[in-house]
Amino acid sequence: MQKRTFPRPLMVTLVLALVFVTAGGIWYYRAQEQRLRDRAEEELQAIAQLKVEQLAAWRAERIADAAVLRDSPTFVAAVTQWLSDPQDEQAETILRRLRTLQTHYGYSDAFLIDVQFEICLGVEGQSVPLSEDARQAITTAWHNRQPVLTDLHILPDDQMPHIDIITPLFDNAGTDAEPVGAVMIRSDATTFLYPLIQSWPTPSDSAETLLVRRDGDAVLFLNDLRHQPGSALMLRIPLNQTDVPAVMAVTGTTGVVRGKDYRGVEVLAAIFPIPDSPWFIIAKEDTDEILADWERESSLIVGLIAGTLAVIGTVVGVIWQSNEKAHVQRLYQAEKARLESEMRYQTVLLSIGDGIIVTDVEGRVELLNPAAERLTGWSRADARGQPLEAVFRIVSEDTREPVANPVRQVLREGIIVGLANHTLLIAKDGREIPIADSGAPVQRHGDVISGVVLAFQDQTDERAAQNALRESEEYIRTVLDNLPIGVAVNSVDPDVTFSYINDNFVRFYRTTREALAESDSFWEAVYEDTDFREIIKRRVLEDVASGDPARMRWDDVPITRKGEETTYISAMNAPIRGTDLMLSAVWDTTERKRTEDARREQHMLTEALRDTAAALISAMDIDAVMTTLLANVARVVPHDASNIMMITGDQAQVVYSHGYPDDLDRPLHNFHIAIPQTPHLQEMLTTKSPFLIAQTRQYATWQQDPLTDWVQSYVAVPIRSRENVVGFLNLDSSTPGFFTNAHAERLQAFADLASIAIEHAQLYEQIQRHAGELEQRVIERTYELNHAKERTEAILTSSSDVMILIQADGIITQVNPAFKTVFECTTDEALGQPCTALVIPDHIPRMQQAIDNVMASRQSQRLEVTAHCRTGKTFDADIVLSPIVDHDRHLLGVVCNVRDITLHKRMETQLRQTLEQEMALNELKTRYVSMAAHDLRNPLAVIRSSVDLIRQYGDRLSDEQTQEKYDRIYNSIQIMVDMLDDILLLEKVEAGKLSFNPAPMDIIALCEKIIEDTSHAIGAAQHITFDVQGECGAVSVDAKLLRHVLGNLLSNAIKYSPDDSTVSLTIRCAEDHIVFQVEDQGIGIPDVDQARLFEAFHRASNAKSIPGTGLGLAIVKQSVEVHGGTINFESHVGVGTTFTVTLPRVSVEQGTHEDNPDNRR
Amino acid sequence: MKTILIIDDDTMLRNNLRMILELEGFTAFEADNGLVGLAYAKELQPDLIICDVMMPALDGYAVLTQLQQHPRTSAIPLIFLTAISDDGHAQRALSMGAEGYLTKPYVLENLLATIRSALYH
Q1: % of residues, chain A, pLDDT over 70
Q2: Cα(A815)–Cα(A795) distance, integer angstroms
C-alpha cells in the first residue's frame, strides 16, 4: 500500500495556529502584567491622595477650633480680667471653657499662657516650662494674629508624640490690638493623628503610609512604622540614600516611584506633599506582594497557552488519523465488493439452467457450467482447451447439415449472434438435443475482444409442447365444426374478418360462407334492412369496444329475409386471450321467442282482464261500469271503434261509444234499434252468445249505410246480468276479416266481467240511497246534539259560578273555567280528586252527606260550607248539588254548582250592623226628641203660665209676686238654654265630635274657680270644702271639659243635698293619675236608677222635683272618657253620694302638643 | 167655692197654676207627686183634680186608677195636664175616664174652659 504522507494543508494550518496562539499568548501575558502594575500604582496614588486630604482636613479643623477661642469676646474678656487681677471665679470660668474644648474634641490638655510665656492655668493642673519651639510658635501666632500648629514633638516627661495648637488672644478685635496671652491646646498624635495615617483601605501584608519631613540633611519619619514599631520621630535616614522613597519625597519627587524602603526591601510608592505643612505622605507596598497575584496569574496564562497548543496539535492529529482510517476502510470495502462480485458471478454461472461455454479469443473452451457439461457430455476439465466445434457440435434439425458455429461469427463481427431455429446439439455420447443458443463477445479494456460466451438451451420440452398444441387445435376444430351452435373466430377492428366459421354459424345467420369471405361483408350479408343494420352494427361495435364481457351478448336479434318468416338469433362474443381475435357464438332462438311472445300476449290479456275486473269492482254505478268497459276493451281485442247498447224493452240504444267519427257518434246515440228487426242482435239475445261477422261485405243481412260503410269486420257479445241480456258490446274494424273467433271468445269473457259489476253497481246504488238517508238523519241529529252541547258548554264556560261534574263515586271529572279563578288552581290539579277535597276538613262530612243524599234521592240539595283553595285561602260557598240522570232515571253524575258568597255574607253582616246602628241611633234620636219635647214643655209651661199671670192678672198681683213670675220666666228660660246646650253637646259626644284640647294648667286653681262659679250660680247653702292631697303642680287637661265634669258633679251634689250639709271636693294627685272625688250628704240615688244613671235624659226617680235636664251625667261620663279616665260612684239613698273621677296623668310636654291628631276626639 | 187639687212634680208650674186658679176664684191645693196627691184627694175631696202624667213615685194613670177604685174619690173628675203630646196617650187617658187631656204649655183659655166644663157639666 502506498505510504501516505501528512497532508500539506493540514500541516500549514497547524503551524499557523501554533504561531498565532504563541504570539497571542505572549501579548496577553505582557498586557496582563502591565495592567496589574498600573492598577497597583493607581491604588497607591489614590490612597496617598486620600491621606493627604484627610491630614489637610485634620489640620484645618484644629486651626478652626483655635480660632473659635480667639474670637470669643467673653473668653478673651475673662482671660484679660483674670490676667490683670487673678481671682478664683474667673479662673474657673476659663478652665470650664477649656475643659469643654478638651472633652468635646478629645484634646489631651490645654493651657493659658501669658505674654511672658508663662503657663498660668492648665486643665490638667500641670505647669511645665514651654519649649523653645512652643515659644516660637506663640510668637508667630501673635504676629500673624492666626492660630498656629506646632510640629510633632515628643515631650520630655512622657515620650509620647504630640502636636500643639496655639491660639493667640488679643485685647480687642482691631488690627492694633495688643496680645494679652495665648491658649495652647495639646493633641496626642497616637490617639488621633497616627490612626488616620496608618489605616489602609485594603487587606495587605506589607502596605503602609508614612508621614515624613526634612530634618536637616536627613529625612525624619513622623509616625510609627509598620515594620519598625516605636520609630516615630526617632528614625532618620540621610538624604544621600536616594533610592529610598522618603528621601525622594523630601527632595522634591512626587508621584509613583520604585525604590527600597527603610528596610531595604523593593517597594512601589506614591509620594505627595501635604499642603500648608512641611509634611509628605508616602503610600507604599512591597513589590513582591504586588506581583504575588501576578505570579499566579502568569502561570495560569502560560498554562493556558501551552494547553491551547496541545489541543490544536491533538485535534489536527485526530483529524489526520480519522482520514487515514476512512481511507483504509474504503479500500477494504472495495476489495470486499470485488470478491463478492466474483463469487456471485461464479455462483450465477454455475447455477444457471442454460448451458454456458466461455471460449478464449482463439475459440478454445475455457469454461463450461454444469448445464453445459450435462448437455454436451463434456466435463469442464476435459473440455478446457478443446476447440469449441469439438465440444459444441451442432447440426440443422431439418437438413442434418452442420451449422456454422456462432463463436466464429462473434469473434469475426464482434456482435451478439443468435442461432437459427431447429438446431440439434450432438452430445459427446451421441444424444441429439434440440437447442436454441446465442453467442456474445467478452470484451475487456475497451473494444478488445478477449473471448466469447456461448449460451444455449435445451429445446426438447418445447418441441413436445408445440406438437401437443397442434393436435389440440385439430381436436378443437373438429368439436367446433360439430357444435349445435354457430361458432366463428374473427377480428373486430372494426371490420369483421373471419378466420374460422362453422356450418351452424352460416345457417343461423341465414347466409353463405362466400358472402362472409370478404372482409367486413358480415353486416351486409346478414342484415338486409339497412336502417336496422346500422343500428345493430353500431350497438355491437360499441359493446365490443367497451371490453365489458356483460355487454357482449345480444339476444333475440331478428334475421329477416324478404318474403320469409323472420327468425331470431342470440349471439355472444368472447375475446380470445393473447390475441386480437374474438370467439363468436350464435344460436337460433326463434322457437323460444315465439313461445315467449304468445305467453306475453296471454299475460297481457290476463292483465287486462284483471285490471278491468278491478276497475269494474271499484266502479260504483252503471255509468262507471260501462265507461270502464269501453276504456279497457282495446287491451283485450284491438279494434277501431266500439259501443255499448243498452236494452229497453225490445229496443236497443247506443249509450256509450268510443272511436267513432263525430258525424256518426251523435246519430248513433239517438238511434233506437228494434231488436226483433235486427237479426244479429236478436240472435245474441236469444243465444246469449257472441256474434261474429268477419267480413261485413260478405254478410247478407248487414245493413249498408254511408256512415258505417267503413266497417269491414264486426264482433259483438251480449252483456249478461243474472241470466238476462241487458245490453250489447259491439266492436268495429275497418280491416276486412280482422275479428276472429278467438276475439269473440275473449270479448265475451271480458263482457262477463261487466255483468258482475252491473249487479254490484245496482246494489251499491241501493246502499248509497240508504246511506244517504241515514247520513241525513245523522247530520240532523248531530246538529241537534252539537247545538245542545254548545249551549251547555256556553252556559258552563260563561258562568261566573263554578260548575263541577262529579261522577257517581264523587270524583271530579270536569270543571268550567270559573273553577280556576275561584279555587286558584289548574283544572289538572282538580280532575280526579274527590269533590269533598274542595271544602275544609270540618265540612267534609256535610258535603259527603249532601252528595250521598243527591245520589240516593235524585233530588237537588243546597248547602253552605267553607271551601278552601290550594293556596290556603278559604271562602264561604253556596253549593247546589243536582243529579244528572238519563231517561231511565239512571244516575250519570252530579253537577256541583259553587258560588263564592263571602262578599255577599260580608255585605249582609255589614248591612245588618249598619241597620242595627241606624236603628239604635234612630231610637236614640227619637228618644232625644221625645225627651227633649217633654222636658222642654215643663219650663215652657212655667213661662207661659207666668206670662199669663202677669198679663191676665197683673193688676191683682203684688210687686213681689210679679217679680217672682219674672224670675220664674228667667229661670225656665235658663233651664231650656242649658238643656239645649247639653243636647247639642251630647249630640257632639254621640257623633264622636267632642273636641279634646288638653293644656297644662294649675289644677288646684282651676278647681277652686269651678267651686266658686258653681256655688255662686246655684246659690248654694251647703258647706263646700276643698282638699288637695299629694303633689299636683301643672296638669294637662281639657279645662272646658273638666269644668263641665266637676261643675256638673258639684251642682248635682249641691242640688240634691239639704241646706247646711257638706259638699266636699277632694283631689288626690298621684304620679300617674289624678283622682277627683265629689262627696255629698244628699238624697242619694235609688238602686233601681243606678244602672242607668249615665244614660241621657235619665233622671233618678227621687230627683224629678229638682230641675235638671238628665243630660249632665251622660256628658260627664263622655268627658271623662275622652281624657282616658273612668268615673264611678257610690250612693245610698238618704245618706249621700260619692262620685270618683280618675284621670291618667299625661306629661305636660305630651299634653301641650295640641296639633297631635291622636289627642283629638 | 169649688176646690181643685193640682198634682205635679214641677214646683214652679204647680205654683203658677195654683195662683191662676185662685185668681179665677177657685180654692187650689198642691201635691208634688202622685202618692201625696192621692192622700190629698181622699182627705180634701176636691171638686176637680189636675194631674201630671209623668211623675216620680206614682204616675198620672196610676193616680187616676187609684182614684176610680176608691169610693170617696171615684166621682172626682180629673184632667191630665202633661208634657206628653201624644195622641195615643190622650186616647188612653180619655178612655180611662179622664175629663180632659191638655198638653204643656197649655193655653190658659183652654185650661179654664176645660176646668169649667168638668166642674159644671
Answers
A1: 95
A2: 12
Query: All 3 cell numbers of residue B21?
Result: 186658679
Considering all CA atoms of chain A, what is the largest pairwise distance in Å, rounded to the nearest integer?
Answer: 221
Q: How many Å apart are CA A689 and CA A681, to the nearest integer?
A: 10
Residue A949 has its nearest CB partner, among B16, B55, B85, at: B16
- B16–A945 C-beta distance less than 8 A: yes
Angle at A78 between CA A77 and CA A84, to 5 degrees: 90
Q: At residue A1108, does pLDDT exceed 70? A: no
Annotate A32-50 with b (16+ C-beta within 10 A) or e (fewer).
eeeebbeebbebbbebbee
Instruction: Report whether pLDDT(A992) > 80.
Output: no
**Residue closest to A627 by CA, chosen among A730, A725, A754:** A754
CB distance A1085 to A1018 below 8 Å: no
Segment 326-365 of chain A within 8 Å of chain B by CB: none
Confirm or reject contact between A1055 and chain B (CB < 8 A): no
For residues A556 and A336, give the distance between their C-alpha atoms in angstroms, rounded to a whole number: 75
Which of A944, A949, A1105 is the closest to B9 by Cβ? A1105
Quick check: A1104 and B85 CB within 8 A?
no
Task: Tell me which chain A residues have a C-beta less than 8 angstroms from the C-beta of B10.
Answer: 938, 941-942, 1105
Cα angle value B88/B92/B97 (rounded, 5°): 150
- Residues paired with A1074 in a beta bridge: A1069, A1143
Work out the minimum CA distance from B89 to partner chain A, whole angstroms.
13
In this predicted structure, what is the pLDDT of residue A1151?
Answer: 42
Neighbours of A377 (CB within 10 A): 18
* Position with higher pLDDT, A230 vs B13: B13
DSSP B39-71: HHHHHH--SEEEE-SS-SSS-HHHHHHHHHHST
Residue A451 has pLDDT above 60, yes or no: yes
**Following DSSP, what letter does each residue of A500-563 receive, concatenated?**
EE-HHHHHHTT--HHHHHSTT-HHHHH--SHHHHHHHHHHHHHHHHHT-GGGSEEEEEEE--TT
Task: Indicate whether A929 pLDDT > 80.
Answer: no
- pTM, two decimals, is 0.33
Q: Report CA Rg, chain B.
A: 13
ipTM metric: 0.90
Contacts of A702 (CB under 8 A, 6+ apart): A693, A696, A714
Question: Quick check: helix, strand or coil at residue A31?
Answer: helix
pLDDT at residue A490, rounded to an integer: 87
- Sheet arrangement for strand A1062-1069: A1023-1029, A1062-1069, A1073-1079, A1136-1144, A1126-1132
Q: Classify each residue of A946-961 as buried b or exposed e, where b means 16 or more C-beta atoms within 10 Å of its C-beta.
A: bbbbbeebeeebeeee
Distance (Å, whole) CA B10 – CA A945: 12
A933, A944, A1105 member nearest B85 (Cβ): A933
Cβ proximity of A534 and A523 under 8 Å: no
User: Strand pairing of A651-658 and A641-648?
Assistant: antiparallel
Residue of chain A with shortest Cα separation from B32: A1105
Partners of residue A501 on adjacent β-strands = A488
Measure the CA–CA gap between A159 and A943, rounded to whole angstroms. Answer: 152
Q: Are the Cβ atoms of A952 and B108 closer than 8 angstroms?
A: yes
Instruction: Look up residue A576 and give its DSSP letter.
Output: P
